[in-house]
Known about the structure:
- It is a single chain.
- This protein is an alpha/beta fold and 314 residues long.
- The chain has three domains: 1-60, no CATH class; 66-200; 255-314.
- Helix content is 31%, strand content 7%.
- Strand 2 (95-98), helix 6 and strand 3 (121-123) form a beta-alpha-beta unit.
Amino acid sequence: xxxxxxxxxxxxxxxxxxxxxxxxxxxxxxxxxxxxxxxxxxxxxxxxxxxxxxxxxxxxxxxxxxxxxxxxxxxxxxxxxxxxxxxxxxxxxxxxxxxxxxxxxxxxxxxxxxxxxxxxxxxxxxxxxxxxxxxxxxxxxxxxxxxxxxxxxxxxxxxxxxxxxxxxxxxxxxxxxxxxxxxxxxxxxxxxxxxxxxxxxxxxxxxxxxxxxxxxxxxxxxxxxxxxxxxxxxxxxxxxxxxxxxxxxxxxxxxxxxxxxxxxxxxxxxxxxxxxxxxxxxxxxxxxxxxxxxxxxxxxxxxxxxxxxxxxxx
Length: 314
């Protein structure tokens, strides 16, 4: 069987024996109440702490009903490990979220679905090992048991076509709660909307199945001129600011240039701190790349820092 610890580092016996010898005790009962709220990596780490916690995770299905696999475990997750982890829910798994799990295949997903017929939220964005047909088969399997799928995320799966989307929509439209919410209406920098039944739709610009956004800025020129359809489309058709989601005019793309090559509107570009040398900003998502030289209130970007070192060497 695969190792669920994912090679979690352990303290060496020498480190454990440092200082006064201690008698291990039982973990506080309050700690057991926290287990259902931990991430998968947190559950794995807690299970390595002591035998009592490991037994608690083994005997209780509650921490395993909502399974979300994301970084840094995504690239390690494969079919065999996924099947073993989901088996801890004893067939009662409700949410299966696999984000960027490229090693998961149609066969692995189908096995998990067949063993967990109560799943009502299926998230598999950017799982490039899956096919549209494999996802459809999984959804159909859930419907056989009378289960209504509340939401599904499939953005990033290759070769999604209109007919695939139409089939999937037929399995989520019966849920009235999801119909009350309009999907993909605003650009969301913090993440996907968890209310939308499906995270993709047909782009009105390119007619492809993609995530579709509309400009969230009320002062948008297109909104002001009541040309709402012109600022609604996928990110490939309409450039959008990575900060606020506003649609960016072609003339502003070169003027509001970012170091990280992300798109910025002029308003956000003016508000961000700039490199002391090239006068370009990082977006907030890449702000950690800033290099702060001593005695300077600004920062130096990675590219300018390399050029500066080359000049010093010369």
